[in-house]
Every structure is written in C-alpha cells, then in structure tokens.
Automatic annotation (TrEMBL):
Claim: Cell inner membrane is one of the keywords in the record: no
Protein name (database record): AraC family transcriptional regulator
GO MF term (any one): DNA-binding transcription factor activity
Coiled coil: none
Keywords: DNA-binding, Transcription, Transcription regulation
Name of a matching Pfam family: AraC_binding
Spans traversing the lipid bilayer: none
Length: 259
C-alpha cells in the first residue's frame, strides 16, 4: 500500500501522485504503477528497477517494496485485489517477475487508462483491461522462483501496517513479536535503513496524504485517524516529510487527483 491499500482489499482503486517517496512495505493487493512524467526507482525484494516516462511496473501481492523519486515524478497508481484476476493469481503463485517493468502499445494504453483510471468504467471493463495488461506484461517477462523474504521482516512490516493508526512503539512491537528491544531496534535499522520512529511517521504521513487527496475530512480528524494524539505533532511531522503544510498539500492535489 501503499499502506492505505489495507482499506481496499476487495476493491480496485486508483489515484495520482507527485514526487512520491514511500518506505518499505507490503500488502496483499497488486500495485500497478504508471509513470506519466519523470522517473521513479522501485525496489522490490531488494532488487532495484528504474521506471521512465511512459513505462508501467507491477508489484505482486506480499512483495516488500519501496518507491523513490530522486528528481521528479508524476504517476498513476492502480491498486487491485487478487480476487479480480484469479487465473493470473494461480499462475504466479510462489513466483516473482523476472522484470516487472513493461510497456504497452498506444492502443492498449488508451483502453487500460480509460478502464482502470476512471470512475466511469464498469467491473467487466476493469477485469478485461487487467487481463489485457497482464497478458502484455507476460509477453515481456518470465516467472522466476520467488525469493523468500526474512520472516521477521515480514512480521515487522505487517505489524506496522495493521497498527500504525494506533499508539504503537518499538518496545511494544518487540514484546508482541517476542524479541528484545535492542535486537529489534538493530534489526529494523539494518533492514529498513531508517529508525522505527521515522518509518512510523512516514507511514502515517503518507496515509494522511491519501486522506487529504481522497476525502473531505478535516485536518484534525485526519491527524487522529493517522495515529497522532495531537494536531501539533501531526503538523510538525507533515511539514518535515512533505515540506508543506497539510492544507497546502490538499490544495496542490485538488487539480491532480483522479476521482
């Protein structure tokens, strides 16, 4: 999820992002990324892929991944449940894509964009477009045996994904997972490449960005929905991570977000 895919396990949803950066995470949905403009680096299971303007990338369910914009990027992202593509889901079980980056013909791109990145399409159009997209993807790549991620890393990221909107701490997570605070702190820093607090704040703020872009909830309500106990802490971390206030972010996204 982006962390917020947890809210859409049985749905298909889409949104547009600008200069997106997101730390390591995982989820049960597929994540389709289309770079409209600029470039983006996507790290999947410790493999790095460079996306350029006009290219697509597919992230499979439960693959640990992060998104990095080094200069500038504008992307469309489509999140969809494995239930939408059961035949493909059976095909890729216990496998990963040798290369998840792919291109589409102009005709396929027009059709898929209309069906997947629009509220006007119906369920049959969406499913048909997904299978067309996956068919073109598989013509450009192969399946390889999936690399097994460390179980502890999966447990850590899953725990944070499930509880980031609550009052959580590294110490509390260590107790829940059955590890010492010191061990888990060192493990987290070594594998996620950032501190627990910074990761938690970035996860919460990215979820806040999603809510700011897709709902009319007040900023105060969003702060509490994201796990912050006071608006001051929320605003401080938002500005630190996004370099603008929540209000400014919402105003910028109004013209970009695809309903």
């Amino acid at each position: 999820m982006l962390i917020y895919e947890a809210q859409h396990f049985d749905l298909i949803t889409n949104f547009q992002t600008t200069n997106l950066n997101f730390p390591s995470h995982l989820h049960r949905c597929y994540e389709l990324i289309f770079v409209i403009d600029g470039e983006m680096e996507v790290i999947i299971s410790q493999r790095s892929f460079h996306l350029k303007t006009g290219q697509f990338l597919l992230i499979l369910p439960f693959e640990i991944h992060s998104l990095i914009t080094k200069s500038q990027s504008q992307t469309k992202i489509c999140i969809f449940s494995p239930d939408y593509v059961p035949t493909f889901q059976r095909m890729i079980e216990k496998s990963s894509l040798a290369n998840p980056v792919f291109n589409l013909s102009s005709e396929a791109r027009t059709l898929i964009s209309k069906a997947l990145f629009s509220v006007n399409s119906n369920l049959l159009e969406q499913k048909a477009s997904l299978y067309l997209l996956l068919s073109e993807l598989m013509e450009q790549t192969t399946l390889i045996k999936a690399k097994k991620e460390p179980d502890l890393l999966h447990s850590i990221l899953s725990y944070i994904q499930e509880h980031f909107t609550e009052s959580i701490s590294l110490n509390g997570m260590a107790r829940k997972l059955g590890y010492s605070y010191n061990y888990l702190s060192k493990y987290f820093n070594a594998h996620v490449k950032t501190s627990f607090v910074d990761f938690l704040n970035e996860t919460r703020i990215n979820y806040a960005c999603y809510l700011l872009s897709t709902t009319e909830k007040t900023i105060s309500d969003i702060a509490f929905l994201c796990g912050y106990e006071n608006i001051r802490s929320f605003n401080r971390n938002f500005v630190k991570i996004k370099l603008c206030t929540p209000k400014e972010y919402r105003e910028k996204q109004t013209s970009l977000f695809i309903e």
